[in-house]
Specification:
167 residues, mainly alpha, Multidrug-efflux Transporter Regulator, Chain: A, Domain 2, 2 domains, 7 helices, 61% helix, disordered N terminus
Length: 167
């Protein structure tokens, strides 16, 4: 009931989707959509007072789509709320996109360095005669061989440190 006019609150005439339907459509949980609601990012267009079911309009479905894309790009829910609710101007949004791009570029550079390290370790192990008998080595010999194969740049420093510890 509408408390002002004492009339039943009716569902709007436009086509609406239930929370479970949009959750399934976007492959997200209903709980996640409720979190977005609590954060003030997406509020149901209509909630059935009798059942509590939440209904969303086509515009809100598009907003959820944008939210999920921004989330995939690394934006926090607080950042997304500001963007979606108009709390960010064009220049701030462009600056935020540049920061996200730089963060992803840093992640790519880090991944490339790890790939290079794996390639170098693989090459050292492939070319090592000692590595062929890895299982036959004592634990100490195996530890030193692995350090030599995996941590080439720091082997000298680790060797000095280890010797100092065992004196």
């Amino acid at each position: 009931m509408d408390h002002v006019n004492n009339k039943p609150v009716e569902k709007p005439e436009t086509e609406m989707m239930k929370i479970g339907e949009i959750a399934a459509f976007f492959n997200v949980s209903v709980k996640a959509i409720r979190i977005y609601e609590k954060k003030g990012i997406i509020v149901p267009a209509w909630t059935d007072p009798a059942t509590g079911y939440r209904y969303y309009s086509a515009d809100q479905v598009q907003t959820l789509n944008a939210l999920l894309e921004l989330k995939t790009l690394g934006f926090s829910l607080n950042e997304i709320r500001k963007i979606i609710t108009g709390g960010v101007n064009k220049s701030d949004f462009l600056a935020a996109l540049t920061r996200k791009r730089n963060a992803w570029q840093d992640a790519i550079s880090s991944a490339e360095m790890k790939i290079d390290a794996i390639d170098n370790i693989s090459e050292r192990i492939s070319n090592s005669k000692e590595a062929a008998g890895l299982q036959e080595l004592t634990e100490e010999e195996r530890a030193w061989l692995l350090v030599k194969m995996v941590c080439v740049e720091d082997v000298r420093g680790q060797s000095v440190l280890s010797e100092a510890l065992w004196l």
